[in-house]
Amino acid sequence: MLVNNHAITNDVPYQSVGGSISTGEFGSMMKEMFDPAAEADFRWERWGKLRGRVAHVYAYRVEKSRSKWHVTYEKTDDIVPAYHGLVFIDRDNNMVVRIVFEADLPVSFPIQQVTDTLDYDLASIGAQEFMLPLKAQVRMRQGKLLAKNDVEFRLYRKFTAEAEIKYDTPDALPDDKTKEQPAR
After folding, report:
1. How far apart are CA 165 and CA 155, in angstroms?
2. Confidence grade of residue 179 (pLDDT, cut at 50, 70, 90)
3. How far, in Å, CA of 67 to CA of 83, rounded?
4. Does the pLDDT at position 175 exceed 80?
5. How many CA atoms lie within 13 A of 13 on its CB side?
6. How far is CA 65 from the centre of its chain?
7. Alpha helices, H only, the chain
8. 76: which residues sit within 8 A by CB, 6+ positions away?
9. For residues 55 and 90, what is the distance between their CA atoms, to the nearest angstrom?
10. What percent of the chain has pLDDT over 90?
11. Measuring CA to CA, which residue among 104, 107, 98 is closest to residue 51?
């Protein structure tokens, strides 16, 4: 569970470097929580404020039998736990601005605590604004050891290419473009 500071190259899969690894921050976490098959139980918790915006805060719980979230310890122990957490929804635009997942782990599991927090914010891409991941933080505790992964999402860009297809037939190439010339 230790966090390693190894550089990951194209030749080395990220899973092989060891340490704590998280996935799903870009879209899977939100899908998992709001998927009707998860049958998440939502209830009003309180008002909150993030990045200067007022948010509705709801607590939720997903039972183990409906969970798809995997917590793996050293590639040997894998568990799909029940989990609970909070979801913050911007009062003015009704968009999710934070999701918190907290695993309900059995006492027998080597890791005692896993919390995954994902923040969203508006990001400009081209001339439009989109609600996109801003930062994810995963905290895992094993005994007295606390590992923390911070992932930042930024520098979103719009990449475009413009092409035009024309069906006009150009003039034939002149012979001097393809004909061998005499050496002088």
Report:
1. 32
2. low
3. 8
4. no
5. 2
6. 24
7. 28-34
8. none
9. 4
10. 31
11. 98
Can you read off the two tokens belonging to residue 34? 């709001």
The two three-digit tokens of residue 60, written as one number: 């939720």
Instruction: Kindly state the tokens that stand for 35.
Output: 């998927």
pLDDT single digits (tens) 43-102: 999 999 998 889 999 999 999 999 888 887 777 788 899 999 999 999 999 999 999 999
What single letter denotes the amino acid at residue 141? R
Which pairs with CB-CB distance under 8 Å and at least 24 residues apart come from 106-112?
106/79, 106/81, 109/71, 109/73, 109/77, 109/79, 110/1, 110/73, 110/74, 110/77, 110/142, 111/1, 111/71, 111/73, 111/140, 111/141, 111/142, 112/141, 112/142, 112/143
Type and span of the H or E element at 4: none
